[in-house]
Amino acid sequence: MYQNRILDYISDRRYEPQTLRELAEELNIEGEEKTAFYEAAEQLLSEGQVILGSSDAVTLPPPGKEMIGVYRRHERGFGFIVPDSLTAHGDLFIPPGNGIDALTGDRVRAKVISQKRRATMGKSPYIGRIIEVLERSARGYVGTLTKRGNMYVVNVDGRSLHEPVIIRDPHAKNAKVGSKVAIDLVSYPDDFGNLPEGVITEVLGEAGEPNVETMAIMRAFGLEEKFPNDVLEEARLASKKIDNTIPEDREDLTKTFICTIDPPDAKDYDDAISITRFDEVQKDGACYELGVHIADVAHFVKSGGALDKEAIRRGNSTYLPRKVIPMLPEVLSNGVCSLQEGVNRYAKSCFLRYDETGQVVSERFARTVICSAKRLTYLEAQALIGDDVREAMKHTKSTPKYSRELITALKLMDELAKVIRGRRMKQGMIVLGLPDVELVFDDSGRVVDAQPEDDAFTHTIIEMFMVEANEAAARLFDILNIPMIRRTHPDPDTYDLGELHSFARVSGYNIPQRPDRHSLQALLESVRGKPAQQAVHMAVLKTLNKAEYSPSMIGHFALASEHYTHFTSPIRRYPDFVVHRGIDAVIDAADGKAINSRNKKKIAKKVVEDARVPDEEQMHEISRGCSHTERNSETAERELRSYLILELLAEHLGEDFSGTVTGVTSSGIYVQVDKFVIDGFVHVNELPPAGERWKLNANTGALVAQRSGKSITIGDQFVIRIANVDLSRRQMDLVIVDQQSGRKSSKTQQKAFDKKTKRSDKSHKQGSKKKSARGVKPKNAAKQKSKLKAARKRSARRR
């Protein structure tokens, strides 16, 4: 992980060569972390991935005569190669006519060509010419069959293939014009204008039907709903490994009051909660005991079996709109592994004891048998905490019977979660308040509306408890000093913090030159519930790195956690499997004894030698695979969600909505339609007033009008109009109708921020309600109609 951080930092275009000591300082490497940092740097040097220049400054090596990497192809014929091994040059530009038949995602080999005259023009002196496609992208292609004259072609969905694909014999699969089909390419587009050719492998149905579009996304992203027969058979056999007897190696918790709180449409319940508040403070200082009980999926899925191999291949469950593609067969995920109400289930339980301030005073793990007394939904539980039984009954998905024991437990959960949250906020936990919506579907599966997600505090209750259990699992392996897959989230890059500093200054806020976690937290809290909230929170989000899996000893920045992993969702995430198996190994090695300084080395040795626990190299491989499948699932969910929303907005061309700027480029701005939380594009030539010239300010990230001096930056709010929707490309073009007021901060807001910076440990509010957009009547209708018409024409030309 330190190797990746070093490479990411020095490969940035803004990097100026620094020594290793200076690098460590810039990356906030302190204390014991320095040893691992220098070891990573030495490894990079020995492999030639970095070199030492003058004054021992660390730099990337220059490009060689050839470059191997992944190609990104632009619709205008040029492209870039993202190299396997980073060089000081960065991505290699491939001019039009030099890409042979390579497509986006292909791994290619290219000749590196030096052109000194380009350097005199202020450009990179290197370009490339692809000479070989080493490996074709594994991504599938789906699209709609159409007819051009006497020729049948498929217009491929998305932006990975820009040309239509010729189909010589569409009737071989009984495909009709307007059918959504999956295809394999047999030839590829080239630099001479030849169109690709393909064969239809599957007819999915009529394009535009929600179920058909869902299948198309699944094919495009390699998501398989059906399981192989040997996997299903192993799952069926595994599901019979449970009965009502309590095994000797498990604690009997069937008489302990335990409940689940989940979304109303949940089918796999993998976490349950028990809680106790002691009448008197215990000897260890404990006032509460929290039990987090997680489905013991590892009991049913043995390492190395067909089930295990399929689970690691899938990596995670994928949650598409109205469709779940599970990691495990439903006989397990929705059956014997699911912590359903009123039945005995095997669990791994984490018991955490807290003092009055929410500090953990002791923790332990055990294999248990539980019986959930009640299944609750988030809104149902929230209503019961507020003593509103009638409201709770509106949201129940089970028998609406609420015992005194249940009400007491829920109120204790609310009490403890708030104490824990207060502690975590003092530690610097980052809480973003960005809008999200739930889509409303009709019976056919089409989106007909969107509504803000509920903001019940019960979501936070479960989140806090799961975070605590995940931390405890990570601490267990840290105490034993043995590797384990972790959920890592590095500190923000210095460059990104610099951009945030510029943005905050433009927005009217002054933050420290090198803001720490508490400074960021204070900035977020100072604007929460105010017009500037979305802009500032979005800007902070853009500074944060993406969390991923790795056995490296890196904490979780946003959660202010030194040790963090994933333990709480083994039904839907494979890394949790690895952690559960490691906990099994620890429980067996400890043999009922508490871990202490005298026995921990002996226990650790047994765990490392346990066949259920992968070695560190295997953990790196599993981590890379699971990070990839996670990103693949997220992209698939986002693309299908976008299609369904755009399909609705295509019926609302010319209508107006409130919008917020989410991105700024030299060619235009991305604006989010607030009601549906989806982005569209406004070309720079279509920004008002007509004829104005706009230029991107590299220092502030704002688009600045050259004549008036007016600027547009992230978070600015406009009334926007839907100009055009291209469903196949997942694109939407917008025009600006009017600017909304209220985003810019005032001196009063700055004073409030300064005050919060000094008192960043003050208790925080739970967040503000999100407001959905509403239509706004346009001004100067005739002029706007003309703009709309021109925007559609330009959009058509770009397509």
TrEMBL record:
<feature type="domain" description="S1 motif">
    <location>
        <begin position="654"/>
        <end position="737"/>
    </location>
</feature>
<dbReference type="Pfam" id="PF00773">
    <property type="entry name" value="RNB"/>
</dbReference>
<feature type="compositionally biased region" description="Basic residues">
    <location>
        <begin position="756"/>
        <end position="799"/>
    </location>
</feature>
<protein>
    <recommendedName>
        <fullName>Ribonuclease R</fullName>
        <ecNumber>3.1.13.1</ecNumber>
    </recommendedName>
</protein>
<dbReference type="InterPro" id="IPR004476">
    <property type="entry name" value="RNase_II/RNase_R"/>
</dbReference>
<dbReference type="InterPro" id="IPR013223">
    <property type="entry name" value="RNase_B_OB_dom"/>
</dbReference>
<dbReference type="Pfam" id="PF17876">
    <property type="entry name" value="CSD2"/>
</dbReference>
<dbReference type="InterPro" id="IPR050180">
    <property type="entry name" value="RNR_Ribonuclease"/>
</dbReference>
<dbReference type="GO" id="GO:0008859">
    <property type="term" value="F:exoribonuclease II activity"/>
</dbReference>
<feature type="region of interest" description="Disordered">
    <location>
        <begin position="615"/>
        <end position="634"/>
    </location>
</feature>
<dbReference type="InterPro" id="IPR011805">
    <property type="entry name" value="RNase_R"/>
</dbReference>
<dbReference type="InterPro" id="IPR012340">
    <property type="entry name" value="NA-bd_OB-fold"/>
</dbReference>
<dbReference type="InterPro" id="IPR040476">
    <property type="entry name" value="CSD2"/>
</dbReference>
<keyword id="KW-0694">RNA-binding</keyword>
<feature type="region of interest" description="Disordered">
    <location>
        <begin position="738"/>
        <end position="799"/>
    </location>
</feature>
<keyword id="KW-0269">Exonuclease</keyword>
<dbReference type="GO" id="GO:0003723">
    <property type="term" value="F:RNA binding"/>
</dbReference>
<feature type="compositionally biased region" description="Polar residues">
    <location>
        <begin position="738"/>
        <end position="751"/>
    </location>
</feature>
<dbReference type="Pfam" id="PF08206">
    <property type="entry name" value="OB_RNB"/>
</dbReference>
<dbReference type="InterPro" id="IPR003029">
    <property type="entry name" value="S1_domain"/>
</dbReference>
<dbReference type="GO" id="GO:0006402">
    <property type="term" value="P:mRNA catabolic process"/>
</dbReference>
<dbReference type="Pfam" id="PF00575">
    <property type="entry name" value="S1"/>
</dbReference>
<dbReference type="GO" id="GO:0005829">
    <property type="term" value="C:cytosol"/>
</dbReference>
<keyword id="KW-0540">Nuclease</keyword>
<comment type="function">
    <text>3'-5' exoribonuclease that releases 5'-nucleoside monophosphates and is involved in maturation of structured RNAs.</text>
</comment>
<comment type="similarity">
    <text>Belongs to the RNR ribonuclease family. RNase R subfamily.</text>
</comment>
<dbReference type="InterPro" id="IPR001900">
    <property type="entry name" value="RNase_II/R"/>
</dbReference>
<keyword id="KW-0378">Hydrolase</keyword>
<keyword id="KW-0963">Cytoplasm</keyword>
<dbReference type="InterPro" id="IPR022966">
    <property type="entry name" value="RNase_II/R_CS"/>
</dbReference>
